[in-house]
Design goal:
single chain; mainly alpha; elongated
């Protein structure tokens, strides 16, 4: 009698797992190949974290199906708790990378779910050809720190769930003379703070920038202009509108710590954005931001005759400072001194 009840409960649980896995599989089928590359990199980071902090024993994903059923169930529950924690911290993007391993473990715990697990990985491997390209942006997509070793980690597939066909991974691009990856958010923040160097805003316990700085029309325009050119330079021309918006939000979240100025709310408010698009200060800031980012990526046209650019170019050559710093001094610093009465 009790055995029959236990069997019924277990079957109901497996049916629910199958339903959840099918739902995740349907979602994956709608993900573009290049975006799947981002998901795999995020999943690789999550796996490394779970294995290094003891949450998920390294042997678990590398073992045959149904060898460690209880361990698979326990770790799946821990992964569910991690997803809930990220959701409470408003970091929804980390759900997908965690689900990859949660569903993989469920499939490894039940033979009847192994075929679905293989189907899931058949979808995931579509991202293999795009791993190197997506490494440039995955840190913003998921808010994680990365390096090139993550590419190899992202090609790991649980042996028992290996799909029928796996696409070739393109040979690593030549890295000779490769420059350090440009972090537009960090460079913007550094340039903004440099405009207030020595002012009252950097004395005592002040944060270094005046309240409402990032929602000032000119500064906001400068941020938007900079990140727009930066996205194009790192391959964003082919991104969807959603992907571009998510990337911009990552930049804004980094700059406006704890949403102090409400930068993210401003960006997400359609009416405010439409009004900003007609604001002269915003338009001017956006043009200067375009120039700033283009100088960083060395994509600025040689025939530009803008007086601000020519003045900055002259200063860069005479003083031996990077062109983007000279442009920031000629634009943001000048604006800040007038706007906030800096001495």
């Amino acid at each position: 009698m009790f055995g029959w009840i236990k069997k019924k409960v277990t079957q109901a649980s497996v049916n629910q797992m199958e339903s959840d896995l099918n739902g995740f599989l349907r979602m994956l089928r709608g993900v573009p190949d290049d975006s799947m590359g981002s998901l795999l990199l995020g999943a690789a980071y999550v796996r490394q974290t779970l294995e290094s902090n003891g949450t998920m024993p390294p042997y678990l994903l590398r073992s045959p199906a149904v060898m460690y059923i209880n361990d698979c169930h326990n770790v799946t529950m821990d992964i569910g708790k991690e997803i809930s924690k990220h959701q409470r911290n408003n970091n929804q993007s980390m759900g997908g990378p965690h689900m990859v391993w949660g569903h993989s473990l469920r499939a490894l715990a039940h033979l009847e779910l192994v075929p679905l697990g293989k189907e899931m990985w058949q979808e995931l491997v579509r991202g293999f050809p795009f791993l190197e390209d997506k490494l440039e942006t995955v840190d913003f997509t998921y808010g994680i720190s990365t390096d090139e070793t993550l590419i190899e980690e992202a090609t790991f597939i649980p042996p028992a769930l290996e799909p029928k066909s796996i696409p070739n991974i393109p040979k690593k691009k030549a890295t000779k003379n490769k420059e350090k990856k440009i972090d537009i958010a960090e460079i913007l923040e550094s340039s903004f703070k440099a405009a207030f160097e020595g002012s009252e805003y950097q004395k005592g316990k002040r944060i270094g920038l005046p309240l409402g700085f990032y929602t000032d029309p000119y500064i906001f325009g400068f941020v938007v202009g900079s990140e727009t050119v930066h996205m194009d330079a790192i391959g964003g021309k082919n991104w969807s509108t959603t992907e571009k918006g998510e990337y911009a939000l990552k930049v804004h979240t980094y700059l406006d710590k704890n949403e102090r100025d409400g930068l993210k709310r401003l960006f997400l408010n359609k009416e405010n954005m439409l009004a900003m698009a007609k604001n002269d200060d915003f338009i001017n800031g956006r043009l200067h931001g375009n120039m700033f980012s283009a100088s960083l990526h060395k994509t600025i046209r040689a025939d530009v005759m803008d007086p601000v650019y020519l003045s900055a170019k002259n200063k860069s050559e005479n003083d031996g400072i990077p062109l983007h710093e000279a442009i920031a001094e000629a634009t943001v610093s000048v604006y800040a001194k007038n706007k906030w009465d800096l001495i």
